[in-house]
């Protein structure tokens, strides 16, 4: 909001608003005077209307007594005829004769008002009748009361039976308001309720025109308007002069502030005089000089920080040590924003929950606000803040490259006393992105490494990895001369399974047998797929007898397999032949050849059996 707008608001608040309030008060007093006069006039007219109504009702009671005496001895049809004739002869507006709740005779105008009633007793018939008469019709009563500036409306219940003013056709009654407008003319309304012929009361409303009392007050309003307008014009002139004087002094400060906002610190404010504005200009120039030096320092610090973050990002990208990477990411995040503490939580795999893997500094008493920030960050997939009176916490997610995957983890940093700025949040966002990318690289590295050494179908080590593992174990045999065993396993009649049931069935058989091999292996053993349907198991620190026992246990487990058929028509039974060899001299090729020869012997001698290389050698020498 501009300074001129502020001065305008100030002028309105201290001048216009009070003057408007005074004007409202003055006009209210004038209106109250006008209203009082109108009320007094309306009250006088209402008293006149009530007096006339009561007078007519008293006269009607006298007529009712006369009529009751005249028909007191009559009965039947003669009574009705005589009663109607007497009422007409007397010039009554309306007359009724009732026997209890039953009306015997009702003659005259139904819009008659101001009734008078008497009780006529017939001693001979033992009954009492009520005679009610009226000398006054509602229209006659309304016209007697009406005069210039005065209107009368008479209602029987909610029905209008007489009116000296034209009301809208849709109106069934006069509005129950003290003041109202009829045909564009203002009236003051006063109503009185009287007894009528029926159960519904007779309501008489006197409408006194407000114009009759408003003329004398027009001059007072005119004088009040002139005084208020003159005062407002004078006040506006003085405020305009003051506004221009102040705005001229402040325009220099505004221009200087704009230069500072654009980064120009070369043009200080010109200081004139010795008043408060001069002191303000001197302080402004001092602040500008200090701000310029601080911005230069901040710019240099920001360059250093960005360079440090860039180096850390490269470190993230090149690191393959997951725990060390997580520790470095957390320390860097805490240091980058000068936090008092922080923690990092990650998932071991995509389907597992987050678990804290590292903590830096102190988070004592801040666990709830940290969890709040982490929940917010994980829900919006980015960065979020949580605050208390003394601490500010920011959490940034380590998002995967694939949007459909869950976040790898979240880094939370807390800082006490001083809230985190937008620049701090951007630094944390950048660090989170670098750390997430580094985690993706590590996972990709290990995934490629696993794919390079693992058979995709069985999950066992592939042939290349088998050779690496066997070479490493043979090197240990050569150095320490401990025994090593080797089992070679071949699935019996595997080609027939493929030819009969299809290759998917053969793959299922291979996976089941591979699982048996894994389940019967110790942690130090190394199961592998040697090739085709042939599997192998390296047994470090195992002699021939121990290797044979393990092989026999594996063969029995394979024989107990029941592999479901892929066509859903039952199960397949599987057997395997196993060859066993052991060595302590460290000749890998000889060990493989012995185990393979023993396997061939098991196949040749009937399948579903285990043959050891030593037994094969003994048989061969005996045959010679």
Outline the structure in words.
With 624 residues, this protein is α+β, with helices and mostly antiparallel strands. Among the domains are: 265-318; 323-450, GAF domain (Beta-Lactamase), CATH 3.30.450; 454-623, Reverse transcriptase/Diguanylate cyclase domain (Alpha-Beta Plaits). It has 15 helices and 23 strands. The chain has helices spanning 3-70, 76-89, 138-145, 211-214, 218-261, 276-318, 322-336, 367-380, 422-453, 463-480, 494-501, 503-519, 544-559, 588-604, 613-623; strands spanning 94-99, 102-108, 112-113, 116-122, 127-134, 136-137, 150-156, 159-163, 179-182, 185-194, 202-209, 341-346, 355-361, 383-387, 391-398, 409-416, 484-491, 526-531, 534-540, 562-564, 571-573, 576-583, 610-612. Strands 8-7-11-10-9 form a five-stranded antiparallel β-sheet. A hairpin with a 4-residue loop joins β4 (116-122) and β5. α1 runs antiparallel to α5 (218-261), α5 crosses α6 and α7 (322-336) packs antiparallel against α9. The longest helix is centred in the N-terminal third of the chain and has 68 residues, at 3-70. The chain is elongated. 30% of the residues are buried.
